[in-house]
Specification:
Length: 144
Amino acid sequence: MTRINLHPLGVVLIAFLGFASPAHGQLLNPDFETGNFTNWQTSGNCAVMGTFGAGPNAIAPDSGSFQAVLLSQPGSTVAAPLETFLGLAPGAIAALDPVSFGGPTQGSAIKQTITVVAGSTLTIRYNGLPQKFCDTTPEVQALD
């Protein structure tokens, strides 16, 4: 699905999804152009929006008018329920980075189940934004 950032410092993940080559099981609403999470399941602090931020640091959608924004700040899901949502084994999230800042403790995720032909390529484009950006961006504060 999409990379999940569960760092307790709070990072925004902006996702753009698509296939690099044709596949039989296409993602539905892969670029969020419905303006919402139609055909996606969400957990935590997730939103679909146009340009994220303002000024020189603004992040426009990779294509189209919308993009997904996932936060690991308050309002996101703690590790155990997030592991269940993603079908991961207990402790799998903490194992991502067990040393830094006591390990990941919360995060947000989106998912969609598809079936593809062996050899197909799924391309995921994303931006991981640092805490400083999150603290000064009105869109992030509005999602909290």
